[in-house]
Amino acid sequence: MIYLLNRSVSFAITLLLISVITFAVTNILPGDVAMMIMGTQSNPEALAGLRESLGLNDPLVTQYLRWIGGMLTGDWGTSLVFKEEIGPLLLQKMTASSLIVVMSMTIALTAAVPLGVWAAVHRDKWQDTASSTTALLGVSLPDFFWGIMLILLFARALGWLPSSGFVDPGEDFLRALKHAFLPSLALGLGLMAHLTRMTRATMTGILAQEFIRVARAKGLPERTVVWRYGLANAIGPVMTVAGLQVGYLFGSIIVMESLFNYTGMGWLTYQALLNRDIPLIQASVFVIAAVVMLANLIVDLAYVLVDPRIRLG
Amino acid sequence: MKGFLNAKGLIGIVLVSAVLLIAIFAPMIIPAEFATKMNMRARLDPPSLEYLFGTDQLGRNMFYRVMLGARTSLTIAVTAVAMSVAIGLPLGIISGYFGGLTDNVLMRLVDTLLSFPALLLALTISAVLGPNLQNTIIAIGIAFTPFLARIIRGEALRVTQMPYVEAARAAGTTDALIILRHILPNIMPPVIVQATISLAFAILAEAGLSFLGLGTQPPRASWGLMIQASRDYLDVAPWTALVPGAAVALTVLGLNMFGDVLRDVLDPRARAGG
Q1: A10 lies in which domain range?
Q2: Of A18, A39, A73, which residue is a domain's last?
Q3: For chain B, percent of residues with pLDDT exceeding 90
Q4: Within a domain: residue A81?
Q5: CA distance to A138, A208, B12, per residue, from A234 (Å)
């Protein structure tokens, strides 16, 4: 209980820090919202007037407090590019992106865990070399390059899957999955390579331990030793690493959603950055960082829940 | 040096030195106009003896462009990583060595920064400052700093707890001297390993930024930009994507392999699985 409370307080403080950093980074901009609304060629007096009415002449601290106050009371402002309220817009795009994030994580884990275990079991044999080399190749290719290759293969050459666009899962779930599949696969491949390396490293460490030798010595079948004894102990650390990769995924979706014209959070953030839509940039950056933070918190809590050896205060 | 003499180490060294040599010498050997000269009659020509890697949508020689792109990629990656080490080193050492409140505050800040995806941070900074070569370096450099600061802090903390540091303290050596004589030399091996691996990530980040138009700007040759330009011609000219993609992949692969082997040699403790 105390642990939970501790984590919640720490989470709140970090959220606050995230908001300060987001606000600071976006405020080193040479231009400002007034210029953005009226254009660079506008009349200086009108510009000054708009600045005054938007409160852009106030000290930064006042501006920050006004911004964070709005966020807390549910008034997230209006996007300059999309002319829409930011709150509902972000919610909709976040839903679209969660489909991709969840799918790519599933793809990566289903492939990486068996591959990593396989490599660890056959350590220093050809299976290990093959799996490790593939993984190393995987982490070395930029994920948008994977994306382009997948478009060429599955969309152009084979014509099996659409190469661009987004479909609302609420309208047509199957079509939504089809549209999300290629970007998810492209993201999943890079992630898989990374997780394979991690699984292999963790499993190698565990298989070298005493209790594994004992399990083997008492005549348990190798399959039970590896999967029941070994993997059961490796899954925690692997999940933690996977949780940390949620941050990496939310960075990569910016590239991937733009490549596939998948109108989710990454695409939205990119549009905001390209058009210097400051209110939208601030809100999206803040939301992404908060979601990443939250994902890590959930993984941590799940770890405590699953692993009975961890008993915290 | 024995640790380098395996397949991985040798491939890594060969790839890294090849890219390094190309980055240094290609711009001296290849006149800049070779890579920018357009030839409308030779647009999207497939690889041939005349055009080794084919031509792009403006009829420019891809071979020259890929060679010159090496300098852009490496310059940005090396400077950006140097920048994050330069900022991360003092922050990490102060945090790890002095501990206490300073450590708490600094690491809380670093942890918060780590919840921003590095690519998002770099893109935002680059968009905010205005994309060009210098700002791409600043953006990637800042985005990578929290990660390096965290690692350096961990190493500094480990060395600070060593008996020889305790002995130096007991003998009345000043903090500055302890940091200079004992902490710095002893944390350098893992820091060098991390910096090498970060170089690989920086190359990928630069390619990503340029691909989105928020990194290197045309007409400068950049691998990410070349891949971006290839998007509209994938069906007719797949080499326009494959050539720069392979350049990125080989460079990053080389750095990763070199980094792995460097870790085994310099930092045996961190060897995965012993």
Answers
A1: 2-73
A2: A73
A3: 39
A4: no
A5: 22, 12, 30
A281 contacts in chain B (CB < 8 Å): 124, 127
Same structural domain, A64 and A91: no
Taking the C-alpha atoms of residue A277 and residue A36, their distance in angstroms, rounded to an integer, is 8
CA–CA gap between residue A205 and residue A197 (Å, rounded): 13
Rounded CA gap, A125 and B261, in Å?
Answer: 18
Residues A112 and A222 in one domain: yes
> Cα–Cα distance between A260 and A183 in angstroms, integer?
7
- Number of structural domains, chain A? 2
Co-location of A8 and A29 in the same domain: yes
Which of A13, A46, A73 represents a domain boundary (last residue)?
A73
| Overall fold of domain B2-25+49-273 | MetI-like fold (1.10.3720)
Residue A79 lies in a domain: no
**Shared domain check, A120 and A9:** no
Domain match, A22 and A104 both: no
Kindly provide the b/e burial profile for residues B80-104, where b requires at least 16 CB atoms within 10 angstroms of the residue's own CB. Answer: bbebbbebbbebbbbbbbeeeeebe
Q: Are residues A66 and A91 in the same domain?
A: no
- For residue A101, give Cα distances in angstroms to A152, B57, B67, B89, B119: 22, 34, 36, 34, 16
- Is the residue at A34 inside a domain? yes
- pLDDT tens string A209-221: 888 888 888 888 8
Which ipTM value was assigned to this complex?
0.84
Residue ranges of the domains in chain B?
2-25+49-273
pLDDT tens track for B89-148: 999 999 999 989 999 999 989 988 988 999 999 999 998 888 889 999 999 999 999 999
Lowest-confidence pick of A49-63, A134-148, B38-52: B38-52
Weakest-pLDDT range from A35-39, A101-105, B72-76, B105-109: A35-39
**Given an 8 Å threshold on Cβ–Cβ distance, is B212 in contact with A254?**
yes
Give B68-94 pLDDT, tens digit per residue. Answer: 889 899 999 999 999 999 999 999 999
| Mean pLDDT lowest among A221-225, A265-269, B161-165 | A221-225
Check whether residue A227 and residue A180 sit in a common domain. yes
All residues at 6 or more sequence positions from B200 whose CB lies less than 8 Å from its CB, including other chains: A140, B251, B252, B255, B256, B259
Closest residue in chain A to residue B209, using alpha carbons only: A255
**Could you tell me if residue A197 is inside a domain?**
yes
Is A292 within 8 Å of B117 when comparing Cβ atoms?
A: yes
**Amino acid identity at B179:** I
Residues 239-278 of A with CB under 8 A from B: 247-252, 254-255, 258-259, 269-270, 273-274, 276
Predicted confidence at residue A109, as pLDDT, reads: 92
Do the beta carbons of residue A240 and residue A303 sit within 8 Å? yes
- Are A180 and A283 in the same domain? yes
CB contact under 8 A, A208 and B207: no
Which candidate from B117, B125, B227 shows the least CB-CB separation from A247?
B117
